[in-house]
Amino acid sequence: MFLGDGMSVPTLAAARTLRGQRAGAAGEEAQLAFEAFPTVGLAKTYCVDSQIADSACTSTAYLCGAKANLGTLGVSAAVPRYDCAAAADTQHQLDSIAVWALEDGRDAGIVTTTRVTHASPAGAYSRSADRDWESDAGVRAAGHDPHTCPDIAHQLVHSYPGTHFKVILGGGRREFLPVDAVDEDGAPGLRADGRDLIREWRADKAARNLTHQYVWNRNRLLAAAADPPDYLLGLFEGSHMRYHLQADPIADPTLAEMTEAAIRALDRNDRGFFLFVEGGRIDHAHHENRVELALDETVELSAAVQRAVELLDEEDSLIVVTSDHAHVMAFSGYTRRGGDVLGPSDDVGDDGVPYMTLSYANGPGHRPSQGDRRQDVTADPDFRSVEWRSHAEVPLQSETHGGEDVAVFARGPRHALFAGLYEQSRLPHLMACAAGLSRAPALCRD
Predict the structure, then answer these.
(1) Engineering a disulfide at 218: which of 248, 253, 285, 294 sits with its beta carbon 3.0 to 4.6 angstroms away?
(2) What domains appear along the chain, each with residue ranges and CATH number?
(3) Which residues have a catalytic role annotated?
């Protein structure tokens, strides 16, 4: 399962156009790798208590198969956000499709460009009343006991199913290290309990006589991928991984490289595997109104999907690509065919001022008007730099998510199940059906 965090339908259209224009074409006719898949559907993304979703309730939906409350992970809607006691009640805890796969003798793993403890990947293994409880410091700051409500990093290392994930790749070293320690790049840890969970992960695997390796840069990952151990943990940044356009090509693996490493490690199990891969920084760039970064991260997700397509046989490997929620980026104006998708529209506003083909309904890119005229954003000193912010109508420190449906693309066994319009929480049940997992709904079994 590939997830483009915040990958709205307008994001898809703009990213495919950018991809085509980078190749010297007009752009509009281009395709992202997964747009060639034979089945397309739409998923409804709202939370139980919120019209507009976040990445936690949606993660619970598309990985655990149940709608939940905003900000909660791996627990039912009986758990309000921040309610530690309710989340600790096992009656309210949910199992993800990763658990379903492990129960059937398959392997499981996660890959992300965010922290591995961030909301999207955490839905595969954690149960938490708050997505922000990534380390014990977050649990304590909320006034709760980490022994009652273990933090998300602790769950990944010490609780099932995280203990059985053969591959864990992404960012987030700070959530695993104590405050008096620094990581390989000199960045401090966040843990208040003095524990080094990376060391504890290694100790757990050694105690179980399992070959294992911890890697923290691209070269070490590629070397490990050539001869994978039983268990592979890769943490490549203190927090989120760097945007692809700002990454160090020597130190930072691409999403496609991490995906290939994970598939090569997991594909050794004859019974198969479940892998969750997230292009998580599409979302972050949208929140910042940095549109080129958002589109480039989408193109990178496409490259990762393409690598999976090359490595996996369509006859026995289902690939599902979707998003968790939308964003409020608009693709507008009447620009000529092939016009620069990152540039201004061919038209101007009624005030005579240019406007961008890609803009936002809200966010930090807002510029106040000067009388009856908007500011001309094309005159910004940093216009068209990768960190330039496109215009936003409503001033907000961080752009919001959108409430529209998200696309679902499927290829492989029983891909036609994913056609139509349905609740996001139906996705893992459809995947379980296609994979023949024992937890698949009875009605979809052959």
Answers:
(1) 253
(2) 2-328+409-444 (3.40.720.10), 344-395 (no CATH)
(3) 55
* Tens-place pLDDT, residues 387-435: 999 999 999 999 999 999 999 999 999 999 999 999 999 999 999 999 9
Taking the C-alpha atoms of residue 276 and residue 97, their distance in angstroms, rounded to an integer, is 10
Q: What is the pTM of this model?
A: 0.98
Instruction: Report the pLDDT value the prediction gives residue 370, as an integer from 0 to 100.
Output: 87
Query: Any residues with CB less than 8 A from the CB of 325 and at least 6 apart, and which?
Result: 6, 8, 45, 52, 53, 54, 55, 58, 401, 402, 403, 406
In Å, how far from its chain's centre is CA 260? 17
According to the 3-state scheme, what is the secondary structure of the chain? CEEECCCCHHHHHHHHHHHHHHCCCCCCCCCCHHHHCCEEEEEECCCCCCCCCCHHHHHHHHHHCCCCCCCCECECCCCCCCCHHHHHCHHHECCCHHHHHHHCCCEEEEEEEEECCCHHHHCCCCCECCCCCCCHHHHHHCCCCCCCCCCHHHHHHHCCCHHHCCEEEEECHHHHCECCCECCCCCECCECCCCCHHHHHHHHHHHCCCCEEEECCHHHHHHHHHCCCCEEEEECCCCCCCCHHHCCCCCCCCHHHHHHHHHHHHCCCCCCEEEEEEECHHHHHHHCCCHHHHHHHHHHHHHHHHHHHHHCCCCCCCEEEECCCEECEEECCCCCCCCCCCCEEEEECCCCCEEECEEEEEECCECCCECCECCCHHHCCCCCCCCCCCCEEEECCCCCEECCCEEEEEECCCHHHHCEEEEHHHHHHHHHHHHCCCCCCHHHCC
Q: Stretch 303-331: mean pLDDT, rounded?
A: 98
The pLDDT mean for the chain works out to 97
